[in-house]
């Protein structure tokens, strides 16, 4: 065997080994490791899921935030789209709000009451301001995630590609699903 073919075979083998180790499934990853920039724990992720369920609750006719996994969308947006300083304020607000409702049942009306109370907080107190920022941001991203979900765009308000059909005599009947966005 000549030197050239040996070097080519070594390069291909080394590349295969590197590709194999990089593509290997790492079972140790958790949701908190995916959002490492935030430094969020599993308990805080669960709390965020409960809060998102208060914002968009499940009911027999419409899926809620638990079924659509909107907490993951909220965390993705906070992790990827917010500045580092805003992320820190968000996490301070999350922890402060979680501490304020720590002893209450999260599935009860107490969470809704705390949510409304947190939105009407005093902006002069830095902790209350961070709670307000946290609640408003969570509400915004939860609603955005719901309105842009596949479920909403296909089952609640069916989306039609442009230019769409025109029927001048079309009458909307009660219960007919109409996309209000176009």
From TrEMBL:
InterPro entries assigned to the protein according to its UniProt record, in alphabetical order: Gluconate_2DH_su3
PROSITE patterns to which the protein is assigned, alphabetical: PROKAR_LIPOPROTEIN
A Pfam family of this chain: Gluconate_2-dh3
Protein name: Gluconate 2-dehydrogenase subunit 3 family protein
């Amino acid at each position: 065997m000549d030197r050239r073919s040996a070097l080519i075979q070594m390069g291909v083998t080394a590349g295969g080994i590197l590709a194999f180790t990089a593509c290997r499934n790492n079972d140790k990853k958790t949701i908190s490791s995916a959002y490492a920039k935030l430094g969020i724990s599993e308990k805080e992720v669960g709390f965020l899921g409960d809060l998102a369920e208060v914002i968009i609750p499940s009911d027999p006719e419409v899926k809620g935030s638990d079924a659509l996994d909107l907490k993951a969308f909220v965390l993705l947006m906070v992790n990827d789209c917010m500045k580092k300083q805003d992320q820190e304020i968000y996490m301070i607000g999350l922890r402060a709000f979680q501490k304020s409702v720590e002893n209450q049942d999260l599935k009860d009306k107490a969470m809704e009451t705390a949510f409304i109370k947190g939105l009407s907080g005093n902006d002069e107190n830095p902790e209350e301001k961070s709670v307000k920022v946290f609640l408003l941001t969570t509400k915004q991203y939860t609603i955005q995630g719901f309105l842009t979900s596949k479920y909403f765009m296909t089952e609640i308000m069916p989306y039609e590609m442009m230019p769409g059909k025109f029927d001048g005599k079309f009458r909307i009947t009660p219960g007919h699903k109409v996309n209000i966005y176009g």
